[in-house]
Amino acid sequence: MTPHVLSAQDLTKSYGQGENRFDALKGVSLAVGAGESLAIVGKSGSGKSTLMHLLALLDTPDAGTISVKGQDARSLGRNELNELRNRDFGFVFQQFFLTPNSSVLDNVVLPLMIAGVKPAERRKRGMEALERLEMADKARNKATDLSGGQKQRVVIARALVNNPSVIFADEPTGNLDTATGAVVEDILFDLNREQGITLITVTHDTDLAARCSRQFYIRDGREVSADELTSTTITTGASA
Amino acid sequence: MTFGDILRSAISNTFRSKVRTALTVVAIFIGAFTLTLTSAIGAGVSDYIDKQIGAIGGDDLLTVSPAAEAGASDDGPREYDPDGAATQGNFTLLSDADIEAIRATDGIDKVEPAAMLAPDYIQYDGGTRFELSVNPMIGLADADLAAGRQLEDGSGSPELLLPSSYLEPMGFTDAEAALEKTVSIAVTDYAGTRHTVDAVVAGVQNDSLFGDGVGFNEDLRTEMDALQKTGMPAGVPSGYITSVAYLSTDISAEELDGIKSDLADQGFTGLTVADQIGAIQTVINGIIGVLNAFAVIALIAAGFGIVNTLLMSVQERTREIGLMKAMGMGGGKIFALFSFEAIFIGFLGSALGAGVAMGLGTAISSVLSNTVLSALPGLNIMLFTPAAVATIIGVVMLIAFLAGTLPARRAARQNPIDALRYE
Description:
The complex is a heterodimer.
Chain A: E1 4-15, E2 22-33, E3 37-41, H1 48-55, E4 63-68, E5 71-72, H2 78-88, E6 89-93, H3 104-108, H4 110-115, H5 119-132, H6 148-160, E7 166-170, H7 178-195, E8 198-203, H8 206-211, E9 214-219, E10 222-224, H9 226-237
Parallel strand pairs in A: 3-8, 3-9, 6-7, 7-8
Antiparallel strand pairs in A: 1-2, 1-4, 4-5, 9-10
Chain B: H1 3-14, H2 18-56, E1 61-66, E2 87-88, E3 91-92, H3 96-104, E4 108-114, E5 121-123, E6 129-130, E7 145-148, E8 159-163, H4 167-170, H5 175-178, E9 182-188, E10 194-205, E11 215-216, H6 218-228, E12 242-247, H7 253-265, E13 268-271, H8 273-316, H9 318-326, H10 331-370, H11 386-412, H12 416-420
Parallel strand pairs in B: 8-10
Antiparallel strand pairs in B: 1-12, 1-13, 2-3, 4-12, 5-6, 5-9, 7-10, 8-11, 9-10
Helix pairs in contact in B: 1-10, 2-8, 2-10, 2-11, 8-10, 8-11, 10-11
């Protein structure tokens, strides 16, 4: 069995209080092996994003434990947690989150700047990441001047620049047309295959989910089987 | 994130919303501009007063006079005391014994009685004769000179300092022309004989508020005093209106108070120059203080502008902050990022404000010195010192930092998930 990069036991998380209380997660257990590509599949409000936030250590669960490479996340101090996220995690979001008026290169090297890497080294590694995504010629452009597909490549370059062991992708193709989306998917899966980066994708897109080595279906804060989820997806799919 | 990166990012973030930053900078500019001007006026006026104090006497001088007898009006007329101190007019005079007593006081190095010199006129090269009064203060160590040098005591040659208002009437083209020229001063003795004394012009003194009259060096005073007393009948009350005590150097404020109270116990009043014109300075400092207070109020209002600007900035950049936190940036560094932004806005406003104030103030000051204030030579109404300007910029940056703490704290506490939740 491959060593687990991430494992979670009996996670629960709820928001609000009293009548407004909303249980986003009601006891979810999950283990992710190194080099795996995992799709967390569910519709809006299923708790899939909450689960990803907990796994990415952006939030703490109400109950349950999360271990990163065998270490309990609760034993980590605030600074250690920040350092771990900076060093081991990369993030790709549906809505890009690029700083509008900075150059593409400046956006890409943000994680390195946060880590305190020297400017010359930052530049070198930033350009390497951009070259891997064939975006080196756009390094000086402003992030706002790019097309959607180019933006998402920049975001992937940013996620890659610190050589993470895990990339979290939240609806990575949600804002892209089918053709561009397919290219972005190819890039992500190539990284997974060729560099052994663990890929955790949150999506409601069943085609994207199918390309992953494993799927984790979630509905109303609980893990469900693929059939259970599909039945609901069909009935509500029309509105999506 | 290194310190340099935080600084660079903060500065470039400042220019992201240019209009908003510019408006906030203008608010700070107004405050800093006003504060720089008012404090420069304060500095200019007190510098002038300090020069005037120099004209009356140095800081290490104490004017010692007999203590005023209080309470006479309440208790009716005082009985005549034949052994009491001699008087002249309304003044009680200091006797030679008094001078000795003052000399014996701890902390006083030297005492010089101020003789009443009453010269008749001053004349240059057989020209017009002019009345003159003698500057009663002796220690003209720091006279505010337009040209020449300070008086030298004990040089053996009589020297004097000429007020600049005497130059033209006496026939000198300018201050330089009067230097080292010999002028004659006439004095009449008790017998009615007129004597003239020749003295060299050592320097030309700027007209001043206090140090009125011609300054004589010790040699000239001694000579004049001797001539004046020629043929003095016995029984004429002799004594001195006042005396000047030279304090030991490096005396502390407490020691000075001690000396004053020692003198008071012996029936003398000791006043430093600062005591004598302290009231004027207090009033001026009060006015400057009020003006400064207005400027500080403007700055505090500008501080709220900074709070507002940065709160909007934090609001707009919620996602960016969240992203940086998700990528492992600590709250402390986010706080530093926004604090530096506030400090930089403060720096921009205050540096521009102080710079413009210096340029404008220097111009206005020189125009005023040549027109409205030309009667007061040596007065620069506004005096800009690097230390004062640096202090103002520092204070504004501190206010900006304090204003920035509220938005910066809000940014630092932001939850990274807020940026990521968009469902």
